[in-house]
Design a protein that fits this description.
mainly alpha, single chain, elongated
Length: 71
């Protein structure tokens, strides 16, 4: 409703557009299993280990920020 009032298009996060948003990666990070998150990310993207680690590091910062603001 509020999006229509402000003429803003709402788009839900798309895990295919950003594999770091996939539920498997998010769950691995939330449980503290960074290695599993990197492995899943690499399976989804077929990228290098360094690229996957960088992406997961960015995603991990986002999750930590999200948790801190909820307390």
């Amino acid at each position: 409703f509020i999006y229509r009032q402000l003429n803003i298009d709402y788009a839900q996060p798309n895990a295919k557009a950003d594999p770091a948003l996939s539920s498997q990666v998010q769950e691995a990070l939330k449980s503290g299993n960074k290695i599993a998150a990197i492995k899943v990310y690499r399976e989804l993207t077929d990228c290098s280990l360094a690229d996957a680690k960088a992406a997961i590091d960015r995603a991990e910062q986002f999750i930590k920020i999200g948790r801190a603001s909820c307390r």
